[in-house]
Specification:
The complex is a heterodimer.
Chain A lengths: L11 H6 L2 H31 L2 H17 L2 H32 L7 E5 H11 L1 H7 L3 E5 L4 E5 H17 L6 E8 L2 E8 L31 H11 L3 E6 L5 E8 L6
Parallel strand pairs in A: 2-4
Antiparallel strand pairs in A: 1-3, 4-5, 5-7, 6-7
Chain B lengths: L12 E5 L3 H13 L3 E5 L2 H11 L3 E5 L7 H9 L9 E5 L3 H7 L5 E4 L4 H14 L10
Parallel strand pairs in B: 1-2, 1-3, 3-4, 4-5
Classes of the chains: A alpha+beta, B alpha/beta.
Bound molecules: adenosine-5'-triphosphate and magnesium ion.
């Protein structure tokens, strides 16, 4: 599989040389699919831009009310919350920037010594409120002080994507996260016991805009795994999933700790 | 944290369903502050489970959610006499015309990000207009 994550018309040249009419039909179909994937994405992006503004708008309303009563303590706690909501909105929007960069091959890694163990712990900590809300219990087995020469932002993003997916598709069941290292490689696993992924979807979900579940019921860009795979591979590692429909998923990321770009 | 039932407007229970954590958080905050009893669910599947055990007086339902979306929740509710009369405020970032193509059976649609006043007003109106619950009111 030369290029699992890509809709760009790379493979098309091969088809042109082949059987004329069959080849043309295939190209037309491919272009149609690409256009429709793009249109779908625009719709999703518009949705994803409006949706997270909802809590921000409600917070502004609450702040107005608090301002009338002059309750300073309440105002300051509401402001904290608003700040947090804006933070979340920004990180969501940053995904769009990543996409643009990855698509135009302008992804630049900034490698430094990263404490992977601390990073994973921190991301789990940040997801606590969501875990509590979902009623999912997360158990982590994290080897101490695994240091890698990697891009800190990219690694954080991969962990975030996998954990947020485990919560989103985990059906409130327990989640297990492990981080181990052996022979200059780190291995991160995120395991949930939710809806799972059918064999036929295992490659597809890593593609751009792709989802295993029916398109109209989703939320999110459908890009988290595509970005994660691109970032993992850019750092010389690999990402994959096993599991069964209805029986949960196990995502595994392997990364070389000594920094070799692909 | 729990308010006494006297301070709740008629002890009404509102079920809020949204996969956006921030929306749940803030709606829960504002509605329980107003004295409603609030139950939250992160997707349609969870909403149906909560529907069974909390008998809400009104539902604020998001449309696009993973695992089970709002349209499927509405469909299930309509096919069950016990739930078909519960008022539902459907919310989505989509335009109403697109929403209409996907589902029916809701009382009112609010496009996200909605104005808080509008939501609160709608809740009051729908609750005032709703028929009394069939099961005897306890407490
Ligand atoms: N843990 C999981 N269990 C079951 N299905 C999953 C899991 N993680 C991902 N999927 C499937 O893979 C699809 C792609 O996931 P991906 O993270 O790329 O996008 P998304 O979660 O839909 O949106 P976002 O861009 O906001 O992350 C999902 O829509 C879902 O169908
Ligand atoms: Mg995701």
């Amino acid at each position: 599989m030369a290029n699992p994550g890509d809709h760009k018309p790379m493979g098309m040249a091969d088809t042109i040389g082949g059987d004329e009419t069959g080849g043309q039909a295939a190209i037309i179909q491919e272009l149609r699919d690409a256009v429709s994937a793009r249109d779908d994405f625009l719709a999703v992006a518009a949705h994803e831009l409006r949706n997270p503004i909802t809590p921000i708008r409600i917070s502004v309303h609450l702040l107005r009310l608090a301002q009338e009563t002059g309750d300073q303590a309440r105002i300051s706690s509401l402001l904290d919350r608003l700040d947090h909501q804006i933070e979340r909105f920004i990180s969501r929007m940053d995904v769009l920037l990543d996409i643009a960069q990855i698509s135009s091959n302008q992804l630049r890694l900034e490698r430094s010594e990263v404490d992977l163990s601390e990073t994973v712990k921190r991301v789990i900590e940040e997801h606590q409120p969501m875990l509590v809300r979902a009623g999912s219990e997360l158990t982590a087995r994290i080897e101490d002080s695994i240091i890698g020469f990697l891009d800190a932002v990219a690694f954080t993003q991969i962990v975030e994507n996998l954990i947020s997916n485990a919560i989103k598709y985990g059906q409130c069941k327990p989640i297990e996260v492990t981080l181990t290292s052996a022979r200059d490689q780190a291995e991160l696993t995120v395991c949930d016991h939710g809806i799972g992924i059918g064999l036929e979807d295992r490659e597809r979900i890593f593609q751009r805009f792709e989802r295993a579940v029916q398109r109209k019921s989703h939320t999110g860009f459908g890009l988290g795994l595509w970005v994660s795979r691109r970032l993992t591979e850019a750092m010389g590692g690999s990402i994959g999933v096993i599991g069964q429909k209805g029986a949960g998923s196990l995502f595994t990321v392997t990364l070389p700790l000594k920094g070799t770009n692909r | 944290m729990e308010q006494s039932s006297e301070s709740r407007p008629n002890g009404k229970t509102i079920l809020i369903v949204d996969d956006e954590f921030g929306v749940l958080e803030v709606l829960e905050f504002i509605l329980s502050d107003l004295g409603y009893h609030v139950v939250a669910a992160l997707n349609g599947q969870e909403a149906l489970a909560r529907l069974r055990d909390c008998a809400p007086d009104l539902i604020v339902l998001d449309l696009m959610m993973p695992i089970m979306d709002g349209a499927a929740v509405l469909q299930t509710m309509q096919s069950n006499g016990k739930y078909s009369k519960i008022p539902v405020i459907l919310t989505s970032a989509l335009r109403e015309q697109n929403v209409k193509e996907r589902c029916s059976g809701y009382s009112l649609f609010l496009r996200k990000p909605f104005k808080t006043d509008k939501l609160l007003e709608s809740i009051q109106q729908l609750l005032a207009a709703a028929p009394a619950k069939s099961k005897p009111e306890q407490k």
